[in-house]
Amino acid sequence: MKYLLWLLKAAIFFTLFAFALNNQHDATVYFFFGTHWRAPLVLVVLAAFAGGLVVGALGMLPGWWKHRAAAAQVPAVSDAPSPAPLATATASAATPSISATDLPAVRQHGL
């Protein structure tokens, strides 16, 4: 399976490399107020892809921050048993506790 994935990655790489070699003609991108940019078509496509990545990541930042703030407010769950079950039962009746099973599964995004 590992070799099959490497073969797939190599095929994608060589396909994109062949695309880059076949599209070296100049392309002109026209901006506002008569400005323009002349560059090889491959660079124009690469710039559009990179711009899309940046805009997409910036669009996801508020959601990441909201989830990080919510995760920081969740109390740590310990696996140790409670020393006084009777005191815990009376305290839990007054204030509800949150366990790990009550919370939705949250994926960590590495930020």
Task: List its traits.
two-stranded antiparallel sheet; flat
Give a short overview:
This protein has 111 residues and is mainly α. It has three helices and two strands; from the N terminus they run αββαα.
Please give a structural write-up.
The chain has 111 residues and is mainly α. The protein is 58% helix and 9% strand. The chain is built from three helices and two strands, in the order αββαα. The protein has a two-stranded antiparallel ribbon. The longest helix has 33 residues, at 41-73. The radius of gyration is 27 Å and the shape is flat. It starts with a helix and ends in a 17-residue tail after the last helix.
Write the layout of secondary structure elements.
Elements: H1 2-22, E1 26-30, E2 36-40, H2 41-73, H3 85-94
Antiparallel strand pairs: 1-2
Number of strands: 2
Tell me the span between the first and last alpha carbons.
30 Å
Question: Low-confidence runs (pLDDT<50, min 5 residues)?
Answer: none
The order of strands across the largest sheet is 1-2
Class from secondary-structure proportions? mainly alpha
- The DSSP helix count reads 3
Order of helices and strands: HEEHH
Biggest sheet layout: 2 strands, antiparallel
Provide the residue-averaged pLDDT: 79
Instruction: Write down the Rg.
Output: 27 Å
Question: What general form does the structure show?
Answer: flat
Helix content: 55-70%
Q: Quote the beta fraction.
A: 5-15%
